[in-house]
Amino acid sequence: MPKFFVKQEQIKEKIIEIKEDDVKHIRNVLRKDIDDEIEICNRDNGNNYKCKIKQINQENIICEITQQIESKAESKIYVDIYQGLPKADKMELIIQKSVELGVDRIIPTNMKRCIVKIDTKEEHKKIERWQKISEVAAKQSGRDMIPKVENITNIKNIIDNKQYDAIIVAYEEERENTLKQELKRLKNIKRENYNIGIVIGPEGGIDKDEIEILKQSGAKIVTLGQRILRTETVALNILSIIMYELEETII
Domain 77-249: what homologous superfamily? Predict the structure, then answer.
């Protein structure tokens, strides 16, 4: 069943108003009609509803809630990805697939070896586009929330962030400490949720000085195996492993 997101203000008792781009998509692409069913999620609290279409207008679509749905789409493993700025097409792929795999937030990060440089004038437009990609991926994958693409940050802001149970850094020159070992340490403590930060370098990798700063702040530097992965592959690899390994340990 197609899924759409609305704000709390669009819900009035049992009536939901769909606006903007979703109207064209429902009417012209999906070719939905009166009494057809769609799923709608309140993006402000994650509540899901099965709804029937009651009116199809040029500017809006009016739906009636027929049932509140219990959804288990969201994990209690909260993963933020600090992605070293890659080329545009790669960033879009990283966002799309990370959202499908359950990421909580994506934070583009300036690093020494970033080829791409985004000035403050361009940043707002970039973030806006990346956020739209996140929303489309969230709809497609049946998420109950739209992961946020944050403003561009830097290494210092990562190490100043104390909210995580672990900050894990994928580094091609690490030879001993593995992702599996770090996740095993986390698994030893059963808990209601995990908060994990993942740091991924751009095409040129993470500079040694940045690795040293992260290590001194308590970040865990890990190898992902014998092969060197492209930057757009790393998030997919790590997210898949984290979700698989830690889901079973949640209380």
Answer: SPOUT methyltransferase, trefoil knot domain (3.40.1280.10)
Torsion angle, alpha carbons of 138, 139, 145, 148, to 10: 40
Q: What pTM value is reported for the model? A: 0.89
- At 125-163, the pLDDT tens digits run 999 999 999 999 999 998 999 999 999 999 998 888 778
Q: How far is CA 192 from CA 101, 174, 181, in A?
A: 20, 31, 21
- Strand order from edge to edge, sheet including 11-12: 3-6, 37-42, 48-56, 60-69, 15-19, 11-12
Q: What is the dihedral of CA 99, 101, 105, 106, to 10 degrees?
A: -70
Tell me which CATH homologous superfamily contains domain 3-69: Hypothetical PUA domain-like; domain 1 (2.40.240.20)
Strand partners, 84: 109
Asked if residue 238 lies in contact with residue 198, where contact means CB atoms within 8 angstroms, the answer is yes
Contact criterion met (CB below 8 Å) for 146 and 175: no
Q: When comparing pLDDT for 106 and 2, which is higher?
A: 106
